[in-house]
Backbone:
């Protein structure tokens, strides 16, 4: 698009693929809930610094997906930035390197300003994202095992939740409460990952889970992820908030057997359960102030 400046093209990309409201909607609840999971009162400066780190990670992961999914997007999503020519794949690759370096510099700043644990966890997230980008140097093996691919790429969620915990209480990273919170976050993220790829009529290049494994296996996968989420909620004393929405997600799953074309109903219900889990500590704290 020669008539657009580089800045305009990148702003268009960010509005489409990493919009600020979406970044804030993920980063702020995750950071604030981690704070109120362990403490009371006003969030610390470290927690707000964590919000910036999470947002940067989300931008980095999205950029990496643009390159990794280029061939698939050309077939199934030609309107996305790289296939339609808004940005070239090389431009995105350079942006990946730039954002990764900036995040590592930011990690060094966090060490000086707050704690080494906070710094190391952000750096670990960047390194793990890089391994995901390279598909752990076993891309062929992962391509043949979509579930292993999905799980290996979801494990970064644990590091991100622990990063948020480190902003609150660096010494609590290996506590049962912090680890339970992080594992529940993995369950929440994994159920969203599966439920957003359910369209049985999607382009074959997208290889949705419903196309690959069928309704029975997909349902079991989502139930397992919800069970992890629900168990964490119980351990954290958040079950009265989370369980009704997890139950709603379970009740929506028969839609896949009756009307698989209405898969968006399942995606909406599981997405809501995941969101409520992420917000649950904040909700519980707000309720305690009444």
Residues:
């Amino acid at each position: 698009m020669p008539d657009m400046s580089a800045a305009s093209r990148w702003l268009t990309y960010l509005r489409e693929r990493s919009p600020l409201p979406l970044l804030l909607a993920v980063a702020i609840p995750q950071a604030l809930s981690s704070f109120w999971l362990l403490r009371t009162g006003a969030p610390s400066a470290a927690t707000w610094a964590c919000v910036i780190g999470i947002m940067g990670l989300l931008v980095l992961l999205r950029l990496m997906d643009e390159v990794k999914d280029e061939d698939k997007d050309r077939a199934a999503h030609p309107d996305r930035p790289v296939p339609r020519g808004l940005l070239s794949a090389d431009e995105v690759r350079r942006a990946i390197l730039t954002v990764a370096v900036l995040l590592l510099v930011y990690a060094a700043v966090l060490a000086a300003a707050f704690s080494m644990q906070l710094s190391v966890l952000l750096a670990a997230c960047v390194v793990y994202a890089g391994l995901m980008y390279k598909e752990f140097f076993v891309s062929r093996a992962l391509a043949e095992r979509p579930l292993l691919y999905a799980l290996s790429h979801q494990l970064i969620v644990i590091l991100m939740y622990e990063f948020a915990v480190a902003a609150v209480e660096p010494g609590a990273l290996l506590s049962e409460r912090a680890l339970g919170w992080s594992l529940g976050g993995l369950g929440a993220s994994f159920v969203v990952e599966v439920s957003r790829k359910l369209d049985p009529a999607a382009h074959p290049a997208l290889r949705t889970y419903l196309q690959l494994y069928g309704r029975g296996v997909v349902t079991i996968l989502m139930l397992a992820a919800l069970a992890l989420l629900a168990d964490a909620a119980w351990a954290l004393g958040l079950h009265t908030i989370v369980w009704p929405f997890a139950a709603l997600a379970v009740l929506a799953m028969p839609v896949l057997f009756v009307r698989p074309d209405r898969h968006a109903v399942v995606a909406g219900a599981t997405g809501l359960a995941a969101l409520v889990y992420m917000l649950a500590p904040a909700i519980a704290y707000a309720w305690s102030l009444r």
